[in-house]
Amino acid sequence: MKLVVAIIKPFKLDEVRDALTSLGVHGLTVSEVKGYGRQRGHTEIYRGAEYAVSFLPKIKIEVAVASEQVDRVIEAITGAAKTGQIGDGKIFTLPLEHAVRIRTGEADGAAL
Amino acid sequence: MKSTRLSHLRKGGGILAGVAASLLAAAPAFAQAAAEPTVNKGDTAWMIVATVLVLLMTIPGLALFYGGLVRAKNMLSVLMHVFYCVCVVTLIWVIYGYSLAFTGGSSLIGGFSKAFMAGITPESKAATFTVGVAIPEYVYLAFQMTFACITPALIVGAFAERMRFAAVVLFVPLWVTFVYFPIAHMVWYWAGPDAIDAAAKVLAAATDEAAKTAAQAKLDEVNADSGLIFQFGALDFAGGTVVHINAGLAGLIGALIVGKRIGYGKELLSPHSLTLTMVGAALLWVGWFGFNAGSNLEAAGGALVAMINTFVATAAAALAWMFVEWAAKGKPSLLGVLSGAVAGLVAVTPASGFAGPMGSIVLGLVAGAVCFFFCTTVKNAFGYDDSLDVFGVHCVGGIVGAILTGVLVSPSLGGTGVVDYAAGGKIAEYVMSTQVIAQLKAVGVTILWSGIGSAIIFKVVDLMVGLRATPEAEREGLDLTDHGERAYTS
Questions:
Q1: What angle, rounded to 10 degrees, do the helices at B432-464 and B246-258 form?
Q2: What is the least distance, in Å, from the CA of A48 to any CA of chain B?
Q3: Residues of A in contact with B331 (CB under 8 A)
Q4: Ranges for the Ammonium transporter AmtB-like domain (chain B) (predicted)?
Q5: Could you say which of B284, B302, B413, B415 would form a disulfide bridge with B409 (CB–CB 3.0 to 4.6 Å)?
Q6: Which of B268, B331, B339 sits opposite A47 (nearest CB)?
């Protein structure tokens, strides 16, 4: 199993969710986060006072999937979240050791 | 042309009066004592509305304009400063402020003859700019009160986010007493058109040398019963010197004395709600019609001149700021448009009843560009922390407006010209250099009085209660540390 963590532009959330749902991914976790990558934020100007805003609002998606599904999930997220502009985000995958569904006690593959 | 413009009385008005004497000598019937001025219900109704509009531009207008520009942790602090100004100055005004500003005394300050509103009844009258027309003194007192309320409220934007509330509480009564009332007296106090007209008619009717001398002395005395800046012949229709230069400079002095905010130039000190700032700026514009058109004191042609000028100068200045900012900084910002609009309102204030609409557009364009330059380039070059650009918008815009008023009043530029009541209410001969010099003198006296007076008062307040919030309080935000509440809870 893998945990796929994707940082995306906030307005791309719905498209990403739709793409994942069509793959048969049943659930995901979403957080509002802030950060920056190569883009290094942006500049805001208030009456000539320039402020560098380094931490931009982003959405973090966490989704646990079976190992054989990972490539298709990454492909789906990439396809749905891409605008071609700077700041589209990144996808990380982590090994996932164990999963349990709290309601039934089912474990691992059955719990996803 | 019947005009209701403010009289333009130069020193040596006796010469003009002499001309009037020869002109009027053929009409001795005019020499009778002037009839008691009458009150028109329409004028009264308009002045009540104008008075309320000026309150609207202060609370909530100015309060929200400023409030949106500070960080969320200081929102209530700014709202409180503005609200406090209105409350405390209202009481001071009726107790002694009106008397100090609008009774005769010296050319610098009035007296206490109307302290505690002594002698003022619903029947007492105040002069307008038309011979034989008066408004109830109550409404004049209330209208001028709203000016006294908003002026210190403008100042608080300069030292927002770091001044202790206790310091503001002490500063405002001292400042209006020693700075605002004298300047209002110097700029606006005069005997009124009826007194001058009556004296001029007596002079015109005088037949022998002795009577002429006596009448001339009487006219001189009436002319001398006015404020210093009024005697310069300076024009300030609705408060360019009294309100804006005065408040703007006091703000700068305060910002310099209290020091920069922690993190100024390093941390993000961005406005917390430009939405509220837009609401506030829009209310300022609406309320400003009371400010400018109300300053005509009558629901007459002059109010309409002020109204249309208040429309067009504001629009021009907003667009000027927007396009200059677009060119210089790459983006046309809402805050830029709002700031430009306020700069235009400020600049047209002294000119509103004197300039023509096309002149006002030019005035607005100049003010928008100049104020942008001061709020960005000049402020950054000198590094002073005028939090909400009180100096850059009000003082600079006020100076632009005051000087250009002297140019744009010219009848050849579409202005109204200046009425000489001592010459029977005719438009006086206009000489641009004379008028502009009078305007410059007015600006100079205002800057000196406001600058020195404000500096002394800030120092005194600093010694008595301390101006500056502690660094901990400043980091925490003044809402919690001064007032024990926060603007937004969820």
A1: 40
A2: 5
A3: 45
A4: 45-488
A5: B415
A6: B339
